[in-house]
């Protein structure tokens, strides 16, 4: 063992974090030299994990793990648990072994945060039964919208070679309460259902099982044709239904606790029941019937839109609301948080609340497709909490998060992107937690619990998503991203032959008069898809929250906002504010040097530098472009543009849908773009 490594272990065990780290341990960095006393009369793979975690990491009094069958524990459900301290020991209780494992991770989290563990009386249960991560991983190792390297799943090596990371992945998920994983991209290859791949999937399921993580697969609706050789995939065709039944039987013979299917159908070119004149309900129910005998579920996505006359923001509602009550009870309709597509800010999707007779789950995007990929620091808990201001958790059956995990050493590309994986899990368990407490927990475990670090960095995290909104798309602007890769600004983007609703001008509607998409009653009337009280607010130019102003209204450049400024001036101030905030984050981070290991300090500093430059790029691109319509001047306090619009229009990043651009590809100050 080399000296540096030894020193690191010693410092870590004293709770110091000055030793360079690579982020691979995520928030699970505790080390202990003592063996804690852990007592449990049960033995099973799950209990063995709980015991081992506690025995090697817990530094307090003796811990006992007990299965209980009393009413109080039964009320907490299959995954709930209690943690209670008496004079001589701490008792972890649950009706299941899985609950005990969650309790063990809870206790260790308290210790890592430096909490007082002397008098614990905790009872916990998850808010949702289904708490899954959706991996948009392709079988060739690429990850659609993945910015942290290649897929974790080494399909070519499986089943013979098993990476140590599979278990680390399961452990990290279990530590925050995630209980399911969809292994492959929603744009699914039929190959995943081949016997060869199912055997590989079995190996992963076996590793994840003791951690309480069920495996699910994204399936291609046309599998009976492409894989099974049938001439149709019509869900009402008996042979098709039979094919799915047999396939499902094969899956369960390998993976008895298989979770079920995730389906993207009739969306962005994927096949689906509508190809045969059938409804989404008919398609989903056919699969649900096959899964039902085994306890499996179908997660059927409502992300549908087609090049029709209807406002894209209205389409999922128009198609799915009439199907309310028509789905079998083991189908959950999976709805993206907003009506369009994971934008930096969207109002909630009006489908929530509109299908009272259908189980629904919310789909969030943890990976930052629209928030600066893994270059920008954007803590997303605040965004997800915003959703819960409008949507009651009690109305949901589950949540899905599009994962931001790849095979990068630190799993997520940006060290702070780990916080989004963590926060997604914590909010999936308990959506009532505040973004702030989650940020604090994560910072304390991932870096240091020193308040001189935790306090200022909590503030940075809390402000970070709003900063991104400000420098990318303030006041309700949306989807003015560069074509396809969605990294930088391209509000002017035109691609010959492209669908109108894939182009920014469809969304921003800039003209001489003003800016924004008129979704009021006199416009596309998307407001009417919301409950009356809210429709009334969104419909009114005066009452509409300004953060959604240009989402719901086409507003005159001279219209006066709450601040007393005109729309144009306010827009300029917002972009400037976004730029200023990122510069502030840089300053705060620079003061954190004494508390952070050199490796992660530099890595974060480098990315903040990119973010600060990108913020200026966004500001200049959007304001200079919109100025060609407003013909107005920059108000005082807003910096003159650094970049020239003519030059910015030439920027084409050489990246695909699964890459994060490197610094040298991006417009920088002092470059020829000025
Ligand atoms: C969009 C992504 C695309 C996904 C699609 C989806 O750009 O890559 O396939 O969502 O959710 O955000 O199906």
Automatic annotation (TrEMBL):
Residues covered by the Glycosyl hydrolase family 67 catalytic domain: 113-390
Domain Glycosyl hydrolase family 67 C-terminal positions: 412-638
InterPro entries found in the cross-reference section: A-glucoronidase_C_sf (IPR037054), GH (IPR017853), Glyco_hydro_67_C (IPR011099), Glyco_hydro_67_cat (IPR011100), Hex-like_dom2 (IPR029018)
Any one cellular-component term (Gene Ontology): extracellular region
Entries under Pfam families matching the protein: Glyco_hydro_67C (PF07477), Glyco_hydro_67M (PF07488)
Domain of life: Bacteria
GO BP annotations, alphabetical order: xylan catabolic process
Record organism: Phocaeicola plebeius
An annotated Gene Ontology molecular function: xylan alpha-1,2-glucuronosidase activity
Coiled coil feature spans: none
The entry's keywords: Hydrolase
Protein name per UniProt: Alpha-glucuronidase
């Amino acid at each position: 063992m080399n000296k540096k490594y030894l020193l690191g272990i010693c410092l870590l065990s004293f709770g110091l974090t000055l030793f360079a780290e690579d982020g691979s341990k995520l928030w699970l960095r505790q080390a202990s030299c003592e063996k804690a006393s852990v007592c449990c009369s049960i033995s099973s793979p799950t209990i063995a994990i709980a015991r081992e975690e506690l025995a090697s990491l817990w530094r307090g009094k003796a811990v006992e793990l007990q299965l209980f069958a009393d009413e109080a524990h039964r009320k907490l459900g299959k995954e709930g648990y209690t943690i209670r301290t008496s004079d001589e020991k701490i008792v972890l209780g649950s009706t299941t072994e899985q609950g005990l494992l969650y309790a063990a991770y809870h206790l260790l989290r308290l210790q890592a945060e430096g909490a007082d563990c002397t008098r614990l009386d905790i009872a916990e249960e998850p808010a949702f039964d289904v708490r899954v991560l959706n991996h948009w991983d392709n079988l060739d190792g690429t990850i659609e919208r993945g910015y942290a390297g290649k897929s974790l799943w080494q399909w070519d090596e499986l089943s013979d070679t098993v990476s140590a990371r599979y278990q680390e992945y399961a452990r990290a998920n279990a530590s925050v309460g995630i209980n399911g994983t969809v292994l492959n991209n929603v744009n699914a290859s039929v190959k995943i259902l081949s016997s060869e791949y199912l055997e590989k999937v079995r190996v992963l399921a076996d590793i994840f099982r003791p951690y309480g993580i069920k495996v699910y697969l994204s399936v291609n609706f046309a599998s009976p044709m492409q894989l099974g050789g049938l001439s149709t995939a019509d869900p009402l065709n008996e042979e098709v239904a039979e094919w799915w039944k047999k396939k499902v039987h094969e899956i369960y013979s390998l993976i008895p606790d298989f979770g079920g299917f995730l389906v993207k159908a009739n969306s962005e070119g994927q096949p689906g029941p509508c190809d045969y004149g059938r409804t989404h309900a008919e398609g989903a129910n056919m699969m649900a019937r096959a899964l039902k005998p085994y306890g499996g579920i179908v997660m059927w996505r409502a992300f549908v839109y087609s090049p029709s006359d209807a406002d894209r923001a209205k389409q999922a509602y128009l198609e799915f609301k009439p199907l309310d009550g028509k789905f079998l009870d083991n189908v959950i309709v999976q709805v993206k948080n907003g009506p369009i597509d994971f934008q930096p800010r969207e109002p909630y999707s009006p489908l929530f609340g509109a299908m009272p007779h259908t189980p629904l789950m919310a789909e969030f995007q943890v990976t930052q497709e629209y928030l600066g990929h893994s270059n920008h620091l954007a803590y997303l808990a605040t965004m997800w909490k915003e959703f819960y201001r409008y949507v009651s958790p009690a109305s949901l059956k589950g949540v899905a998060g599009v994962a931001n995990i790849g095979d990068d050493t630190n799993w997520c590309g940006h060290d702070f992107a780990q916080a989004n994986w963590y926060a997604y899990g914590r909010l999936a368990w308990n959506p009532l937690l505040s973004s702030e407490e989650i940020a604090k927990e994560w910072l304390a475990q991932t870096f240091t619990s020193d308040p001189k670090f935790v306090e200022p960095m909590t503030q940075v995290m809390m402000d970070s998503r709003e900063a991104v909104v400000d420098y990318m798309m303030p006041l309700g602007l949306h989807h003015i991203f560069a074509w396809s890769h969605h990294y930088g600004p391209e509000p002017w983007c035109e691609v010959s032959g492209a669908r109108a609703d894939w182009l920014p001008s469809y969304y921003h509607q800039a003209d001489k008069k003003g800016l924004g998409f008129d979704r009021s009653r006199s416009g596309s009337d998307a407001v009417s898809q919301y409950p009356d009280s809210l429709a009334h607010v969104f419909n009114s130019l005066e009452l509409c929250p300004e953060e959604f102003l240009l989402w719901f209204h086409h507003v005159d450049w001279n219209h006066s906002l709450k601040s007393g400024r005109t729309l144009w001036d306010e827009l300029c101030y917002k972009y400037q504010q976004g730029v200023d905030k990122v510069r502030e984050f840089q300053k705060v981070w620079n003061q954190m040097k004494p508390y952070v290991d050199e490796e992660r300090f530099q890595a974060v500093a480098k990315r903040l530098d990119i973010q600060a430059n990108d913020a200026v790029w966004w500001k200049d691109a959007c304001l200079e472009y919109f100025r060609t319509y407003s013909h107005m001047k920059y108000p005082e306090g807003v910096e003159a543009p650094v970049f020239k619009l003519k030059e910015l229009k030439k920027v084409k990043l050489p990246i695909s849908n699964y890459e994060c651009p490197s610094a040298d590809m991006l417009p920088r100050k002092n470059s020829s773009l000025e």
